[in-house]
């Protein structure tokens, strides 16, 4: 009996990145091109994304940029035609979801339905769907080791964050449904907070690094909420991009895996690191949370465990927070961001 | 300083029941009319509902039945105009969600957005949004006392059930969002499995009672999956309807409460009760789960704790399973269902 392999090698295959003119999209396009993809088409509506994010890949003949919207199924069908793999990144996150839940639900729910539909109808071989630690919630009791079976803790979290997490839960289940009913191979990658070069201002937790950098580079003391013992678990964008490539290439399907950086950190450690790497001798200032702002506090020590991804994808994170923040600061200073 | 009351008395007020030509809708209309509502308008698309479900209220001049769809915002705006309270019931549940997630997501997500929008735009005083024990998931580890802060356990559950639960999570958070940003008073009632007169074949767990009754009334032995120690927690439709009325009338807003029957039961107890009340001396037959069928098994003893609803709504369930099943069987035999 023949065994079925669920690998989609990067080399000589064609990939579509939906929502790709973004932090993770631009780094993923770079990795796929480096590894010999025959074509990488980036589709983006430019609602959040920007062509600027792909400038570093300019001139690569295998890269194409197409304007298109996940809400527009015909555009997705046209873009997916002839593709071997699809990486679906288009989404509104907690802050944007809080500002505009109507659009957020459209993009995250209907958009994902459209992407899956396009994959099934055009014969795409494998879908990588990007989910989030938000599927574990941001509730007040979040603590300990988050593994792939950890439930979704919503109590005490802001509506935008819960809605965002719930849309990712739905997206993951739509993938399972498409696998079961229509045979679509897929891997769900649940990122912890992604940060790095081409960082935007839309991600609640990653924002913390760049807001801290914004303060210290203007000579102001960095701020931490409370005593700064709050845990954050970041993953550098290059590690997330490598995980996406590994999700295509590995013999894995119908599975969701956590993708996180080498280890979690406290907010106090982060602000100290940012100040140090920015060359500023500034002591952190302890402040109260701003009312009305979507600030995600786990309230406990937690870690997003990525050992399943190590086993299933043969991937592990390579960039620690010191190196990642160093690269982010270099990029910000070089580009004037 | 004046204190704000979030009560909406039933007497002399006007109510719209969205998705009301249904099991819970018909019983809720009955309670609201009995308690002196000036008008009860039932809006239904008849996709799942049926005018038959309102026959027992025929001739009541305060009851109106309007054909309309939650997907059609203008119809909701027209129906909500002049209403004091809106009860939102329209939803696809796990089985229907499994069959048609596209429609299910439309109805449960966009439909709920439309209902909330209609409430805000027409000045409705209070919304009662009907959620479900599905927000706690149906995962394999579900056990113990489910309270309102219990997380959403998805691992091991079928996609349709998880998607259904996630749409209810989203609906609840859209209510929170509308309360915070637009001042809409609301109460979320999270039902355990509703059963009773005018029972349909669409609810995974309640189906268990009528499928058992279908077998025993044809002289076949009732079936239980495994040893029958699986817990179910039902609530009789009349108790759910009273809870809906209490949610309007109570001085409560911006809160979600569990609504369940007097106590949980094992599946073995249920089949014995159905056989006994149907007057059949038939011993249960122990069977394996049917593959591919959405069967929800908690795998452990659990209870949906409704003590918060007792405190906040001044409500408690009155109909135990013996009395409820007796009424259901009487109704089925009287109507030939």
Write structural notes for this entry.
Two copies of one chain form a homodimer. Chain A is α/β, with parallel strands linked by helices and 337 residues long. Chain A has a domain at 14-199 and 233-263 and 303-319: NAD(P)-binding Rossmann-like Domain (Rossmann fold), CATH 3.40.50. Chain A is 39% helix and 18% strand. Chain A is built from ten helices and 15 strands. A seven-stranded parallel sheet of chain A has the order 3-2-1-4-5-7-12, sandwiched between helices. The first copy, chain A, has a two-stranded parallel ribbon with strand order 6-15. Chain A has a two-stranded parallel ribbon with strand order 8-11. In chain A, helix 2 packs parallel to helix 4. Chain A is globular, with a radius of gyration of 19 Å. Chain A starts with 13 loop residues before the first strand and ends with a helix. The interface between A and B is medium-sized, with 29 and 29 residues.
Give a quick summary of the entry:
By secondary structure, the first copy, chain A, is of the alpha/beta class. The first copy, chain A, is built from 10 helices and 15 strands.
What are the SSEs and their pairings?
2 copies of one chain form a homodimer.
Chain A: E1 14-18, H1 23-34, E2 39-44, E3 63-67, H2 73-80, E4 85-88, H3 94-99, H4 101-122, E5 126-132, E6 144-146, H5 159-182, E7 185-191, E8 193-195, H6 206-217, E9 223-225, E10 231-232, E11 234-236, H7 237-249, E12 255-259, E13 265-266, H8 267-277, E14 285-287, E15 302-304, H9 307-313, H10 321-335
Parallel strand pairs in A: 1-2, 1-4, 2-3, 4-5, 5-7, 6-15, 7-12, 8-11, 9-14
Antiparallel strand pairs in A: 10-13
Helix pairs in contact in A: 1-7, 2-4, 4-5, 6-8, 8-10
């Amino acid at each position: 009996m023949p065994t079925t392999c669920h690998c989609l090698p990067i080399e000589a295959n064609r990939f579509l990145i939906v929502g790709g003119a973004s932090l993770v999209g631009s780094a993923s396009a770079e990795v796929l091109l480096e590894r010999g993809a025959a074509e990488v088409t980036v589709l983006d509506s430019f609602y959040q994304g920007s062509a600027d994010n792909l400038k570093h890949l300019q001139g690569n003949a295998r890269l194409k940029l197409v304007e298109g919207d996940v809400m527009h199924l015909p555009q997705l069908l046209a873009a997916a035609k002839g593709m071997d793999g699809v990486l679906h990144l288009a989404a509104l996150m907690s802050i944007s979801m809080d500002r505009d839940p109507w659009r957020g639900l459209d993009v995250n729910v209907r958009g994902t339905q459209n992407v899956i539909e396009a994959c099934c109808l055009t014969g795409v071989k494998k879908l990588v769907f990007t989910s989030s630690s938000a599927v574990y919630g941001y509730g007040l009791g979040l603590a300990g080791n988050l593994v792939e079976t950890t439930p979704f803790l919503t109590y005490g979290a802001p509506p935008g964050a819960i809605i965002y997490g719930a849309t990712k839960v739905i997206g993951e289940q739509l993938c399972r449904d498409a696998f079961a009913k229509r045979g679509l191979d897929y891997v769900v990658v649940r990122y912890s907070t992604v940060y790095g070069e081409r960082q935007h201002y839309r991600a609640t937790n990653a924002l913390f690094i760049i807001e801290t950098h914004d303060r210290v580079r203007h000579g102001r003391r960095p701020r931490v909420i409370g005593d700064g013992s709050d845990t954050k678990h970041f993953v550098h964008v290059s590690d997330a991009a490598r995980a996406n490539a590994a999700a295509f290439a590995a013999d894995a399907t119908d599975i969701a895996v956590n993708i996180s950086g080498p280890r979690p950190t406290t907010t106090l450690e982060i602000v100290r690191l940012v100040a140090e790497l920015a060359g500023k001798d500034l002591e952190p200032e302890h402040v109260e949370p701003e009312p009305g702002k979507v600030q995600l506090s786990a309230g406990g020590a937690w870690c997003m465990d990525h050992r399943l991804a190590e086993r299933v994808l043969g991937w592990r994170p390579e960039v620690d927070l010191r190196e990642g923040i160093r690269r982010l600061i270099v990029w910000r200073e070089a580009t004037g961001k």
